[in-house]
Specification:
Elements (H helix, E strand, L loop, with lengths): L9 H13 L1 H14 L6 E5 L5 H7 L7 E6 L2 H11 L6 E5 L12 E7 L9 H11 E19 L4 H14 L5 H11 L3 E11 L2 H17 L5 H16 L5 E11 L10
Parallel strand pairs: 1-2, 1-4, 2-3, 4-5
Antiparallel strand pairs: 5-7, 6-7
Helix pairs in contact: 5-7, 6-8
Bound molecules: S-adenosylmethionine.
The site of S-adenosylmethionine has 19 residues, from helix 1 and strand 2.
């Protein structure tokens, strides 16, 4: 297995991943993806960008017989945390360090592949990761992918132009900020068929919003994209809205599924 340990502050990242997964609309996403995975007895599921492994474990509970989940993540400390959280669970799940852009796995070995909020972060072409997922699926196997489109980040800010500039700079600061809108195309281009698309919005509560955007805005301020006056006024208005119970921000993502053709003559090249 390729070792691609990304250097990060894993304590922060684990808390951040857990906080993201605790958001009500992310919790609501999980059963939607599970339903689309249509897991059955004996299936092998690959979870790419598994983080702390909670979804891999939840999926493993739906496998019977000799079914198995393999979770892959680029960050060794997340793989260690996922393994630690699974100790004593007796679930058929294992975690490995690996790179979604170059999977050290043979062709055609998985029945299902689940990918949630990975592609926006991959340090390379997300099409490559989707192609890798398609490669390791068996004919008839299915991929279920979810990701956000960061230009579809709606924030009820009072200053429309500053809000638009903030959304735009934030989206441009995400490695693959437009991957949400590209997902149906990426899945089809990887040769998967019967592509379905389900938009799924995620309301962002004020506390998480602050966590999400403040470090980006610090960098944007340092880069001269905004004046301190603009940002202070913008935050003041959001603080006041929050204090009055009127803060609102939400982000749009897409659940996209595709199935690997069983007939080698079908599918896009
Ligand atoms: C936003 S987190 C989502 C984690 C998990 N899917 C979840 O929903 O809780 C993105 C994950 O993708 C992983 N990741 C980023 N680039 C990767 C790559 N090239 N290969 C594998 N994992 C990667 C990160 O380490 C992180 O765990």
């Amino acid at each position: 297995m390729t070792s691609v340990s990304i250097p990060i502050d894993s304590g922060f990242v684990i808390r951040y991943i857990d906080a993201g997964n605790a958001l009500p609309d992310i919790r609501a996403l999980k059963p939607v993806m599970l339903e689309r995975l249509a897991l059955g007895p004996g299936m092998r599921l690959l979870e790419l960008g598994c983080g702390a492994g909670d979804d891999a474990r939840a999926s493993a509970r739906h496998l019977r017989g000799d079914g198995r989940v393999v979770g892959i993540d680029a960050v060794a400390t997340l793989v260690a945390e996922a393994t630690r959280r699974s100790l004593g669970s007796h679930l058929p799940v294992e975690f490995r360090v690996g790179d979604a852009l170059a999977l050290d796995l043979p062709d055609g070995t998985f029945d299902r592949c689940r990918i949630e909020r990975l592609l926006m972060h991959v340090d390379g072409d997300p099409a490559r990761a989707v192609a890798e997922a398609a490669r390791v699926l068996r004919p008839g196997g299915r991929a279920v992918v979810f990701d956000f489109d960061w230009d579809a980040f709606v924030i009820d800010g009072a200053d429309r132009e500053v809000t638009r500039r903030i959304v735009r700079s934030f989206s441009d600061g995400i490695r693959n900020g437009w991957v949400g809108r590209a997902l149906p195309r990426l899945v089809a281009d990887a040769g998967l068929e019967d592509v379905t698309v389900l938009p799924h919005g995620v309301a962002i509560p004020y506390d998480f919003f602050g966590w999400l955007v403040s470090s980006h805005l610090d960098s944007a301020l340092a880069a001269g994209l905004f004046t301190p006056t603009e940002l202070i006024a913008w935050w003041d208005q959001l603080d006041a809205a929050h204090a009055g119970g009127g803060f609102f921000a939400a982000l749009l993502g897409f659940v996209v599924t595709g199935t690997k053709p069983t007939d080698g003559a079908r599918g896009r090249p």
